[in-house]
User: Fold High-affinity branched-chain amino acid transport ATP-binding protein LivF from Pelagimonas phthalicica.
Amino acid sequence: MSDQASDAILKLQNVHTDIAQYHILHGVDLAVERGAVTMLLGRNGVGKTTTLRTIMGLWTAHTGTIHFDTDNITETPTPARARAGIGFVPEDMGIFTDLTVEENMTLAAASGPLSPQRRDWIFSAFPPLKTFWNSEAGNLSGGQKQMLSIARAMAEERKLYLIDEPTKGLAPAIVSTMAAALKELKNQGASILMVEQNFAVAKAIGDYAAVMDDGKIVWSGTMQELATNAALQEQLMGLSMEAAT
Assistant:
């Protein structure tokens, strides 16, 4: 991503991460361009989720550096990374099931009450959240819980959103709603790094792509370049986006 690096909001350089006795990341080099969507792709188990969690500080990089905006955040605690403007949507959603949708959103708006304008925009993106605003989050369907998880990250405007497999296991209609909301977030100028296994969604939303294998980035470039090259897809991931269009 040589073109990205000139205005990257996030840069990882030679990042290594261990989890217990396992060496998961083997020198990750990654740049996320400001105001664009970068898709982090690859087979299961190659280190994509570990990369997001390392960026968020939930796991510690023992070698290498992570720069966010103008700051070196390699050793910055997770809460400080969140306050600096990084929003994280984990694969396990991370919602509070015994609290209402409204209470979940209130907790997510760390700098103050959720503004009416932001709330209305979230309602337009995810209409079920308006319907179940006063319901306990544990009573939502799987797709509605995922909407709430993403909406929590959107409760305030963030500089960077880290989103881990937002459409996994969802019905096609909900996937469409999710993709439309993420497109709108992108259109507002958000910077997004997203792990996604649905290649149709990746192609529709992504500006750039980085492909992981064995704990490192093995290819990076534009999403268009990857999406239009079936041989490259097969070489990198053993998959073809054409099957998902």
About this structure: DSSP finds ten helices and ten strands in the chain. Strands lie at 8-19, 22-33, 37-41, 61-68, 71-72, 86-89, 160-164, 191-195, 208-213, 216-222.
